[in-house]
Amino acid sequence: MAVTIKDVAREAGVAVCTVSFAVNGSAHVAEATKKRIFDAIEKLNYRPNQSARGLVTKKTNNIGLVVEDTAEGLENGILLDVIRGLGQASSTNNYDLLLSFQKPQTNKIMDHLLDVYRKQSADGLILMGAAVSQPYEELTRNRFPFVLLGRPAIPNLCHSVNADNEQGAYDAVKYLLGKGHRRIALITPCTLEVDASLDRYNGYKQAMEELGGGFDERLVEIGSFNPDSGYVETEKLLALAAKDRPTAIIAGRDVIAARAVEKIQELGYKVPDDIAVIGFDNTMVSQLASPPITSIELPMREMGFEAAQLLMKIIDGEINFDDIQTVVLPCTICERGSA
């Protein structure tokens, strides 16, 4: 039979309400009494009934992660790292993590988010993915806690945690310039309508203008989530006249970098002797490629951890809903044999 709060109260020699006050922190309990209660809880292995507690506290102790249901951009452990960070933070603070995948083609992502809010099945949400990257009016109007994992379309529009994609691309250019390269190309991860793609483009462009002697639009190709992306764009870049073609390529995702390496080698060039390649995301793809690909690592686990911590502080009132917090974490270069 499951241990109840009455059993704890009997073991500690206190009233049931005193146990409740000590566990929930809802009223002052003397330290000596609190120690007896928590000693009893440990001895009896008591676990509070969260459903019953929720009826009283109006809290579920759940936070939800809503992810656009696409493999693109979430492949090879990226989402898993985010979940690990979220899980670490939530479990430490006695929250459970709910995970929801949303299919963008259904056009019902908004309905689902509002349903979570209206049913109060979670105390707050973390939103991840291109189709859920816009703050939602009803959530904001009703002050329902949520944090965007990414960059808001408008600065300071909502609480957010993001990687500094712009800095990552800037550092990639700087790294290649330090290796003696001057003709450095970029294959974006996808269309520039996606914030991470635009940020990487802007970081690359700024670095080329400030450090690389000028920006040349001929050295930029727009990548995609097509399996051939990287292969096709590299072929176009290497078809430029000898004096114009790149000696280094920055690919917006590791899978694009791997396809770029494949095309470079197919055309008879050597990596990195003839053409250097840098990827983005530092996924398993970069480690298994031949040669292993130098990659810009995004701190995905740390982002998940910080997003969960931020969300729980908003839920618990430690941070005001309107006191918008913007957390931007740095990217790092993982050096391997491709650059």
Q: Can you say what the CATH homologous superfamily of the largest domain is?
A: Response regulator
Whole-number radius of gyration?
Answer: 25 Å
Number of domains: 3
Q: What is the correct CATH architecture of the largest domain?
A: 3-Layer(aba) Sandwich
Mean pLDDT: 86
CATH class of the largest domain: Alpha Beta
Ends: how far apart? 63 Å
- Percent helix: 40-55%
Q: What is the name of the CATH topology of the largest domain?
A: Rossmann fold
Strand order of the largest sheet: 2-1-3-4-5-11
Low-confidence stretches: none
DSSP summary, beta strand count: 12
What series of H and E elements makes up the topology? HHHHEHEHEHEEHEHEHEHEHEHEE
Biggest sheet statistics: 6 strands, parallel
Number of helices: 13
Portion of residues in beta strands equals: 15-25%
Structural class by SSE content: alpha/beta
Outline: elongated
